[in-house]
Write a structure and sequence with these properties.
Structural class: mainly alpha
Oligomer: single chain
Strand content: under 5%
Largest sheet: 2 strands, antiparallel
Helix content: 55-70%
Number of helices: 9
Order of helices and strands: HHHEEHHHHHEEH
Strand order of the largest sheet: 1-2
Length: 220
């Protein structure tokens, strides 16, 4: 599958998620009064989960296809990395790259257990994998994802605190407060409706827009 097709799948999902969050904020009192109901929180938690899954799936596909050889968004050939014989080989090599600080690429093993794979959507992990496996478009990928480093990490912080709510993850969410126009939050998921200073948009909606642009740049 050419990288443009991979991006199209992500973009279609992001368009749906953006429409959904725009509709939600236009009709829910939570976006203006910050009085969240349980239903509001459940909706936002599901929305954030779908966003994180879509982003992670795109990053995984981007790396695997780039290593195995494909066509980029401009129609140029991305040659296969020697050793990237199958998806399972790339998966194992990515796992190895994520486990070490500066390991040489290891293409000798395969992995067929998806739960053992790294967190593809984590920008730090993604940069480490790309820099180690070195597909021919590695520079383009790393340049693109670097533009959304803060946004992607903040989304991940909120997502992790929502999925694993405890004192430490809650403090991590509070640690990003200075970057946004905030209100008191009783649950980490409420932070998705904080406002971005530069755009006056909701954190979650602004993140979707930035992911759109960065993903398109990554395949170009």
């Amino acid at each position: 599958m050419p990288l443009y097709d991979t991006w199209t799948v992500l973009n279609e999902e992001l368009e749906i998620l953006e429409t959904e969050i725009r509709n939600f904020t236009a009709t829910s009192n939570a976006s203006t009064t910050h009085a969240f109901t349980l239903k509001d929180e459940l909706y936002l938690e599901g929305h954030l989960s779908r966003l994180w899954q879509a982003w992670g799936k795109f990053c995984r596909s981007l790396i695997i296809k780039s290593c195995m050889g494909t066509i980029d968004g401009n129609g140029s050939l991305i040659t296969r990395v020697a050793g990237a014989i199958s998806e399972e080989h790339v998966s194992a090599a990515a796992m190895h790259a994520n486990q070490k600080n500066t390991p040489p690429p290891n293409w000798t093993k395969t992995n067929g257990i998806l739960r053992k794979e790294p967190t593809w959507g984590d920008i730090d992990v993604l940069t480490k994998i790309t820099s180690n496996l070195i597909p021919s478009n590695a520079v383009q990928i790393n340049a693109a994802i670097s533009t959304i480093y803060t946004t992607a990490k903040d989304i991940q912080t909120i997502r992790n605190a929502t999925a694993h709510t405890n004192n430490q993850t809650t403090l991590e969410v509070r640690g990003i407060m200075t970057r946004y126009v905030v209100f008191p939050t009783n649950h980490p998921i409420q932070a998705t409706l904080w406002t971005v200073h530069s755009t006056s948009d909701f954190l979650i909606a602004n993140a979707i827009e930035e992911l759109k642009m960065a993903s398109l740049s990554a395949i170009s």
